[in-house]
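ARCHIVE CARD
Drawer: 12
Card no.: 0347
Subject: one protein chain, sequence and derived structure
Cross-reference: see card 0346
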Amino acid sequence: MEITKYIQSITNELINNESKLNALDTAIGDGDHGSNVVRGFKAILEQSSQFTKESLIEKDLMTCAQQLMSKIGGSSGPLLGSAFMALAISFKSKTTFTNKDLALGIQAAFDRISQLGKSKLGEKTMLDAIHPTIDAFNNSNSNSLDFAQAATAANKGAEATIPMLAMKGRASYLGERSIGHMDPGAYSVALIFKALSETQDIPPTQTTNSDKLEPNENISNEMKLQPISKNVSILVVSHSQTLAQALVEFAKEMKTGDFAFEYVAGIENGKVFGTDSQIIKNKLETLVVNSEVLIIYDLGSSKMNSELAISLFPSDAQKRIKLASCAFVEGTIVAVSSNNTNSVEELKNIVESQMKVEK
């Protein structure tokens, strides 16, 4: 199943509705959701020359996931990226698909988004448009992949968010003022399924497996950890490279211990406001080898991308990494000036207690 034509169709649909998505987001968010998702899918197209051009699509979906996570600056990046990652894992070794296969894959994507975003149905998120497509594929009587029925279901799900009270993200800050507006994330999901329904040459519904698929190079379960020999490393994760640089330079003036103190910030080499889970993961790999790591983040999607990055590590490495719930500047200063331990749990408790954070 070669997916370039599907990505092209999705990208075109999102481009055609970019202004509408931005307008929906202006009402209850930052006003850039359309521009963000368009940038993400354009980035996928730029990488389409790397697609397998064959029936196996696991690696292609993982490429999609990486581009979405690295190019979309807001919370939609890690959420959509993790959804494509879940699809890739669910579709491993498959060549062609039935409607039941798609239902299982989308359920995996739904569960991953729910876990990462700590959200559920009825909270005015993209989940409200995704979940109806699972039922649509499960209940389809079609002999071909029923993207048309799924698109109808996703659109109804997006429309159903209009009377909902937003419970997650920036829209939740509006309280009852969020009622009466369609969730832009849900609408972008509806547009994705609309584009899929309009793409021609749907593959047959026979399911086969292949022994030829190599282990995916993007998922590593092996990591050689050394005994902890250093004080806790501190990693600042910010949307803004300028802010992160200034904070780290400022906080270094209070640094007395011998420990790593670094930052990751921005996307596209720091030129664009946002965070990238893959960059966070790459930085963590250098820190977690012989120390535990405390992450201090600025905004909600920074936390989400950090959590996604941590989830990509094997379990023994994950145990070495914690996120501190604290004010960004003040928490960083407390962490840097108080760090004389090799226990990340201890340092986290010091920071959060001084910030008077409720746990």
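Annotation on reverse: The CA atoms of residues 9 and 198 lie 8 Å apart. Residues 201-221 have pLDDT under 50 and may be disordered.
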